[in-house]
Structure to design on (446 residues):
C-alpha cells in the first residue's frame, strides 16, 4: 500500500479524554474514531489489526475442534425470560421494542440463543459433544465506558458454547478451550495468565479468566511468578488426547484476581520469592456451568441409558476488539505502538527520504514491488514530507521493521533497516534488505 493513497488520519495532539497508552495511540495513529461514549468507528489501520487478531482466534478455535457459525446481534427477550436472566442482567442490557411491540435486546452474550438452537436440532448423546462458536458484535451499556476499546459499549467478541452428556465430558470441552486460549494469546505475542475467576451472571462454579499483565489493567492480580514464564502448550497439542495434565500444571499454582484473592492462601501456598502482585487486563473468560441454561430451557438429549439428560454446558469468550488495545498496552514505548509480527497491519514500512529523486524513487519502488510479490504487505511512504515527520509517523504506527532509502546511503549502495522493537539498525544492499524482511515473515501469513 502506498501511503499517499491510504486513509491514515493521524493526530498531532493527544485528546484529553485518552487516559491510557492504547487509547492515546489508537486515536493518534488513526485507528479509531469515537462517535459517542464507548462507540467507535474502526478506521482502516485499526480494522486491519482487528481482522488479523480475529483470524488467529478463528484458527485456534478450529484447531481445537470448534465449529464456526453466526448468530444475530438482536435477540428476542422471550429466550432470556425463559432462562430467568432478562430481569437479572441489569442495566447493561440494551432493551428494544420493535414496531409490533415485541421485546427485543441487543445481545450482550448468546447462551440462551444457542441453547435454543441446540434443543431444536440435537436429540441424542450420539450427536455429542458439540462445540460451536461465532465472532460477532456485542453491546453492553457500561455505566462508565472508558479507556477506549478496552472498556467500550460495543465490541467484537468470539463466544463459543459446548454441549456434553455429563460433567466429565463437559470438563474435557472446557480443557480444550483452556489450552486453545493459551495458544491463541501466545501467537499474538502475549503472556496470558489463567486466573481462578468468579462466574458472575453467566453462572456455574468452574471458571478462569485470562489476563495479560499491564500497569493500566483494571484488575489487581496475585499469582505464582512461574505462571508468567510458563510457555504456551504449543500448536502440536493433540486436542483429541487427554489435556488434563496440561491444565493441571497451570491451575495448581495460585492465581486469582482481587475478587477471588485469599491473602492467607497466597502467603501459605506461594513462597515469598515467587509472590507476584500486579495489575492485569482481562482478554478472555471461560465458564463451565453445567445445566444452568439447559434445565431452564428444556435442552435435553437421550442418554446411553435410555433416559433424557439435560445437556452440560460451557461458554468461552475472547474480546477480539479489546485485544487490539491489550496488545498495545503490552507493547509500546514513548514513540508509539510496537506491533508483534503476527498482527501488524503492514509487514514493513518503506521510507523514501527524497521523493522525486530518480535513484531514491527507483530503489524504493523496486523494494516495494518485490516485497509485495513476496507477500510481505509493505507500507510505502511516498509522501513529500520531511524526514523527521516520516520517522515519527512510522514509529507511531509501530510496524515491526522500517527500510529507509536515502540519497546518502544509495551512494554506497545501501539502505538502512530498523527494528522497531529493539531500535537496532543495520545497513544492507537493497536486495539483502528484501531477503532479510522476507525471511522474517517466512512462517507468518500476512
Amino acid at each position: 500500500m502506498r501511503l499517499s493513497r491510504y486513509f491514515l488520519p493521524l493526530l498531532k495532539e493527544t485528546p484529553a479524554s485518552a487516559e491510557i497508552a492504547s487509547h492515546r495511540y489508537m486515536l493518534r495513529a488513526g485507528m479509531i474514531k469515537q462517535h459517542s461514549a464507548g462507540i467507535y468507528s474502526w478506521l482502516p489501520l485499526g480494522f486491519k489489526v482487528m481482522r488479523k487478531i480475529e483470524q488467529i482466534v478463528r484458527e485456534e478455535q478450529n484447531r481445537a475442534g470448534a465449529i464456526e457459525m453466526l448468530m444475530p446481534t438482536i435477540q428476542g427477550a422471550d429466550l432470556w425470560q425463559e432462562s430467568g436472566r432478562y430481569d437479572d442482567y441489569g442495566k447493561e442490557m440494551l432493551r428494544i421494542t420493535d414496531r409490533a411491540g415485541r421485546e427485543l435486546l441487543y445481545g450482550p452474550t448468546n447462551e440462551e440463543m444457542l441453547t435454543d438452537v441446540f434443543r431444536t436440532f440435537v436429540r441424542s448423546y450420539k450427536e455429542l459433544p458439540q462445540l460451536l462458536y461465532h465472532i460477532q458484535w456485542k453491546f453492553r451499556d457500561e455505566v462508565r465506558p472508558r479507556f477506549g476499546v478496552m472498556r467500550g459499549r460495543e465490541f467484537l467478541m468470539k463466544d463459543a458454547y459446548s454441549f456434553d452428556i455429563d460433567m466429565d465430558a463437559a470438563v474435557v470441552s472446557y480443557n480444550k478451550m483452556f489450552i486453545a486460549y493459551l495458544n491463541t494469546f501466545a501467537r499474538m505475542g502475549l503472556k496470558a495468565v489463567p486466573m481462578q475467576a468468579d462466574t458472575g451472571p453467566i453462572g456455574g462454579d468452574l471458571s478462569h479468566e485470562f489476563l495479560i499483565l499491564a500497569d493500566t489493567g483494571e484488575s489487581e492480580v496475585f499469582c505464582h511468578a512461574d505462571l508468567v514464564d510458563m510457555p504456551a502448550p504449543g500448536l502440536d497439542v493433540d486436542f483429541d488426547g487427554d489435556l488434563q495434565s496440561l491444565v493441571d500444571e497451570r491451575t495448581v499454582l495460585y492465581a486469582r484476581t482481587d475478587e477471588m484473592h485469599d491473602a492467607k492462601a497466597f502467603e501459605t501456598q506461594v513462597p515469598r520469592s515467587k509472590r507476584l502482585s500486579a495489575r492485569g487486563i482481562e482478554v478472555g473468560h471461560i465458564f463451565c456451568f453445567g445445566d444452568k441454561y439447559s434445565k431452564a430451557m428444556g435442552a435435553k438429549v437421550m442418554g446411553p441409558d435410555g433416559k433424557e439428560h439435560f445437556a452440560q454446558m460451557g461458554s468461552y469468550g475472547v474480546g477480539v476488539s479489546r485485544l487490539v488495545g491489550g496488545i498495545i498496552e503490552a507493547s509500546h514505548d514513548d514513540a508509539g505502538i510496537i506491533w508483534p509480527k503476527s498482527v501488524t497491519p503492514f509487514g514493513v514500512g518503506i521510507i523514501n527520504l527524497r521523493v522525486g529523486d530518480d535513484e531514491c524513487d527507483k530503489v524504493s519502488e523496486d523494494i516495494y514491488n518485490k516485497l509485495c510479490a513476496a507477500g510481505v504487505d509493505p507500507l510505502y511512504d511516498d509522501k513529500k514530507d520531511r524526514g523527521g515527520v516520516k520517522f515519527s509517523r512510522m514509529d507511531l504506527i509501530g510496524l515491526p521493521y522500517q527500510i529507509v532509502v536515502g540519497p546518502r546511503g544509495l551512494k554506497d549502495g545501501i539502505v538502512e533497516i530498523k527494528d522497531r522493537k529493539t531500535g537496532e539498525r543495520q545497513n544492507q544492499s537493497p536486495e539483502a534488505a528484501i531477503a532479510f524482511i522476507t525471511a522474517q515473515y517466512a512462517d507468518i501469513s500476512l
Notes: The chain has 14 helices and 23 strands. The longest helix spans residues 167-187. Residues 185 and 192 are 6 Å apart (CA to CA). The two ends are 13 Å apart (CA to CA).
